[in-house]
Amino acid sequence: MHEHARAHDHSGHAQPHLANNAVAPGKATQHEHGGAAVQKSQAGGSIFNLPKKEHDEDKAKEHGGAKANASSGGEIHIITRAGLRHLRHDGKEGRDAARVLYNNSNAYVVCKEGQTIPKGWKCHATVLFPSYTEFEAAANAGRIPKSTSAVVYDNEHWAQTPHYEKTNAMHYAKLFGQLADKLNLKYIAAPTRKWFAADARYADIIDVQLQSREVHTGSYERALRHSVMLAKRLNPDIKVVAQISSNRNHLDPDHSGNIGDGIENAERDILGNLDIIDGFWGYLYQQNKPSIKAGQKILEDLAAKRRRGVKV
Fold first, then answer.
1. What is the pTM of this model?
2. Which among 22, 17, 28 has a CA at the least distance from the CA of 129?
3. How far apart are CA 302 and CA 56, in angstroms?
4. pLDDT band for position 73 (50/70/90)?
5. What residues have CB less than 8 Å from 164, skipping those under 6 apart?
C-alpha cells in the first residue's frame, strides 16, 4: 500500500522525520494519517493543548447543533483531528455530521502535537507511530499524553519504519500489541498491504488500505472482502475498518472533472460492505480545495444515512 507522496495522500510530500517521536496527521504515506512528531510535554501539562480560540468555537457551535450520538451501534469511525476540523468548519451540516460520526465512544480521532479532541466529546484521543521503536521510546520517555486511549502502528515501506521491523513484521506487530496492552491502549493497525497479515494477528482494530481502488467498486469490494476474511481467520476478535480518501487523484483518477462520480463510488464502497466491516476511516484529504469539499460531502452523506437509521 505504500505509494509515496502522490498516492499516500497524507500530505502530498514527506514531512521531516524526528527520531524517537510519535508521528501524527500529515505524513506522506498511503495511510494519510500524519507526519508531525510528538514532542516531549511541558512539566505539568499535556503536549496536546487546544488553543483557547478553538475551545471558544466549540462552545459557540455546540448550541443548536446535533446531539452526541449516544445510541451508537458500535460502528467504529476514525478521522484525523485536522480532518475533523475541516468537517466542522462546513457549516451546520458539517458540524452535525462530525457529532453524529465522531462524538461517541466508538470514534477515534488521530491527534498531533498541539491538538486534542473537542472539549466534552466522547471520542478517543489517538496517537500514530510509524514504528514500534518510536512507540517504545515515547512510552519510556513519558511522552504519550495521559489522555491518549489508542495508538496506531503505521508500518510501511518508507524509511520511518526501520528495516529490521519490515523484515520481521510479525515480531514487531506482536511487540507493539504487548506494549499497547501494558499501557492499556487500544492497538489500531494501519499497515501497508505487505504486512497486513502480520498486524492482523495482534491488533484490536485493523484498517484496510484500498484508496487506489475506491472508484472501482467491484475491485474495492473483492479486495476488502478478501482482507476481512483473512483478518478474521487470523484473529477472530479483530475489528476491521475500511478506509476511503477524498483525494481528488483517487476520486477522479483520469482528471476528467467528474469528481462527483468518485464521491458516489467512495460512499458506495462503505455502504455496500456494511455487512462485513466494523466501521470506516474517513480520510479528509487537505492539500487542495476540491479534495476538502469532497471529504466534507462524503462524510456528511454518510452521517445523513446514519441519522436515517443505516448502521454505517
1. 0.81
2. 22
3. 27
4. confident
5. none
